[in-house]
Specification:
- A six-stranded parallel β-sheet has the order 2-1-3-4-7-8, sandwiched between helices. The protein has a six-stranded parallel β-sheet with strand order 11-10-9-12-13-14, sandwiched between helices. A two-stranded antiparallel ribbon has the order 5-6.
- It starts with a strand and ends with a helix.
- The chain is built from 16 helices and 14 strands.
- It folds into two domains: 213 residues, Rossmann fold (3-Layer(aba) Sandwich), CATH 3.40.50; 167 residues, Glycogen Phosphorylase B (Rossmann fold).
- The model has no long low-confidence stretch (mean pLDDT 93).
- The protein is of the alpha/beta class.
Length: 387
Amino acid sequence: MKILIVHNRYSRAGGEENVVAFQRQLLERHGHSVVVYKRSYDEIREWQFGRLASLFSALYNPRSVREIRELVASERPNIALIHNLFPVISPAILPVLKKGGVRVLMILHNYRLACPTGLFYTRGEICERCGFKSGREWNCLAHQCEGSWAGSFGYALRGWWSRTQSYFSRNVDRFLALSDFQRDKLSRYTGIPAERFAVVPNSIEPASMPAPSPAAVAGGRHYVAYAGRLSREKGIDLLFEAARRLPGLEFRVAGMAAQGYALPPVPENVQLVGQLDKAQLADFYTGAQAAVVTSRWYEGFPLSVIEAMYYGTPVLVPELAGLPEIVDHGKCGAIYAPGSADRLAEQLARLAADPQLASDIGSRGRQRVIDRYNPDVYYRLLIENTH
């Protein structure tokens, strides 16, 4: 098949860019011809009136519509894989693809079908006001979910416009969710039948995962690991509270503080190790007796979870969103009550006191990644939805 991948890059590269690159390599490896249509948030800096212009480009970008129409005519793709469309490309390209006879699959990296910011999280708590409540997307403006009146207005407007124009509901053939939770939540709030969704979890490429160093293997597992952004919604303060309850355990934190976030006081038994590359992360997870996720919001499908599992590290996740699905509801990891430093500390203490239990959980987690979150399974699930 000839497959068109469409993605609007963010101002800073992140997980979605990694998935786009992974998809392209995987499809080409299986003999498909892949065309990528990519635009970037950085273009806005060169526009006259910049951010104001992006408000309208998010609703309808004539250049994107024209270029997609030309691509459909010249390349004649069978399938379009849609990633992010905001704020430069705009969902106005979707009717063009549909009219051109292209089957449209949309990868749901977030909850933007029902929430203007895509997060279901604002002012430090989970928020679903834009589900069925009166005003829907305009709750984003009322609560300044983007952090400012202007930014929140832009998010609310493009969410309202996309929904009322039925860009997604009319023109996307199949929505590819990352979890059962995401599928059910978005189907409920959008009114799009669950049958039009398929669950295609993220995966990792084992060949790209570095082997841990001999020193890391020989050093054994002796600390609790956290890898990710250091921010309120990621629950870094919750991790610090759990660390204070376990002064006899060492904690190591990889990642950088989010822009504008003031890191809480760091407990004495917590070491901040900064941003790590893939080789360093291999050693980081190999030396950990457990890895933790402390998120307060509806995570999609964090690659850090299955990366830790791949290295045989037991992963603790909150009972929140699709996270329990990744660890097979506790069979291949551990689950604790979301937002509870006490419950998190209890689970960590249990694993620290029983190394054999931790080893067994870690082994089951690694096997789950090998069996379920691998490129072959991902490719099969993807191709099943192309016809």
